[in-house]
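2024-03-11 09:14:02 INFO receiving multi-entity request
2024-03-11 09:14:02 INFO entity count = two
2024-03-11 09:14:03 INFO echoing inputs for audit
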Amino acid sequence: MSITDASERLLVRMLTAIWRRKDPPVLPQRPYSTNPSDNVQVPMNLVMPLADNSPLGHARLIETLGSAVQEVIAGLDNTQLVHFGRFTIVDGNLCMFSFYDGDFSNYIRDFIYNVGAAFDGLLSHVKDPPPLPVEAHPDEFIAWVMERDALQLTFPDSILQLGPEEDRDPAKVTRRLVLLLDECGRADPPRNVQLFAYRAYPGFSVAQIRDTFKIGW
Amino acid sequence: MKASTLPPGVGIQDTDGAVLADIQGNILRGYNMRFVRHIVVRVADPDAARALIGAVVSGSDGTPTVTTAETWEAGTKPATCLNVGVTATGLQALGLPEDWLATFPEEFRQGAAARAAKVGDVDGSAPEHWRDRLGEADNVHLMWTIHALDSKEELDALAAQIESAWRESGAFTVTSRLDGATLDTYTQNEGDRDTVHFGYRDSISQPRFVVNGEYVGRADSQPIATVGAVLLGRVGDGGGGAARSEHYRTTFPGVTWQMPEATLGNTTIELGVNGCFNAFRALEQDVHAFEQFLDASARTINQELSRRRNGAPTGASEPVWDKERVAAKLMGRWRNGVPLSLSHWTKEHGSEVRFQGPGLPPPMDQANLNDFDYPDEDAGLDDFDGIHCPMGAHIRRTNPRGSQIVQRSANYTRPLVRRGMPYGPPYDAANPDDGQHRGLLGNFLCASLIAQYEAVMYDWANLGLQDPRIVGTNDPIIGANRPATSRFEIPMDDAEPIVLSGFPRFTETAAAIYLFCPSVTTLRFLADLRPAP
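2024-03-11 09:21:47 INFO inference complete, emitting structure
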């Protein structure tokens, strides 16, 4: 790192501390749009740090998922709200990425109802799990997932809420972003950020697509 | 009718009356009274406010007491009833510590104004437009509700008595008074008793509970609703201490909701037991725009059908498309309450005879108005395609009953107890611009605002997620419609559906409040709070 880079970082840290005092940032809630097409195919990026990152720990997780996978598929088929979903281990985290339709809490609640028991097994492998079984603690589980779901910066709308023209000054946008990302880093657990999501057929729900292709909804 | 064996936690068995005496009235059974006043207040003096809450629980010093769910024997129905709900900011103002408040569900703590966008309260319905600054949480702490059986004077007298007590003690300042009355009090026509401003007979469909082995409500093809759909609570005595009681069964078997509670040393007090949540809404109805839309839609449909017939006259077996048929398609019921799924056909007749003529169908026996389903196996009726009742009609959207829906496990999981009353004088077509406010004061009661009320409003009323044929459209009666995007499809037998579009929002939200309606025990607990200085 050059002296110039180090100086810039130090300056930004000092400025961030000042900005925070003047205008304490608040992580925004998941936005609701009045445009129905924004409320289907909503991305979820759930990142759950694993309790045991050894090969043995990963093997046990994979075995748990393997024994539950049919139940998870049946449950997701039953909710009919998830377009695509996948479990992936990324750098010591169990990640669940999906595109779902409708309200986040309804999606998670239906998921609990349909797949809760199978999901309890997976959650036993993550660090700081929610109270289990999730069926007995749905509200806590929904809050737990929300805290671990990536903050979506540009979907469905920009959450930067740039406001009137004078607030669109590039310097002000940078300041807002820095404050927001700084807050994400301070969160416990640190909050990830989704930058952008692409949808090839915006506005269509899972059931509409299944109905169109006559594969049953 | 006697209830047969029910799973534990579905009904209430109250042998000594203690449970019903703990639950506020108008939750399990409706009062069916003619006048209501909701008085929204702000806590001005917490000590005095708690003392007054204590007085309405004990009835000390001649203070009117809060009305409970205790059964009224014949001839003992009171002339007036008094109930109270508290907001999250109200609990704070009464001195509930933050860590206890944190045990209440998040959507309740955030309050109705913060949740407005989710339920479609946007544009002219956004909180900044709500009357009497009811969108500002600090103005909205408690809502006292007075019902009067049939005398406005009795309502005024009780209101004057309790408001006088507030003034003397300085307990509360009044933010808003909202008065409602059944429309028959204006028209003197008993037939208008359950009618709302859009002309529909209302309050027909309610969740049916079993209390002391008896069903409450009309005959219904739907399953019995668990009391856990509306009450937070427990079965039997959990024994206190750190152990949690067994809860009333929720609408999702096996899933339990967060229980608001207070912790005192090693003792946990479950504040939610026998309480419920209430999404109170003042809904302003644009009757003139609605009636104009009905007339215009009837013309549009007749023109379209004439075009499809190449100008040939209507066949004798085809229905008459007048404004009443359009109104019925939008609601799912004719304005006299007869459901489209039954039309004037009854099971006793054994075969379907659908109403084809102009105006309203013949009225049905009131007891049977709710005894239908969209796939009605008993009657051999399958309305999957919405030929009788469109998939997007208000009553089917907000309660799809046994219809096939996308979220397979969600049928019957989002019931709402609705207790409402109109406000404002009836609409007069001869004087449409009378400048009067009119609408509905609605209480939407449930055990979970997010899993029931908000889920209905967001996924079903304003997104149509439950059926791929209505996704992206809003409820025609209560939805957040905009002329540029509104759309309502009327499926037709063996023909392309008729599409109505370009209509505005007919119902604007003039106020919304998320309330907790505590049990009598919890009201007493709040009255006895002694916050640390």
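2024-03-11 09:21:48 INFO post-check: Chain B has eleven helices and 16 strands.
2024-03-11 09:21:48 INFO post-check: The radius of gyration of chain B is 24 Å.
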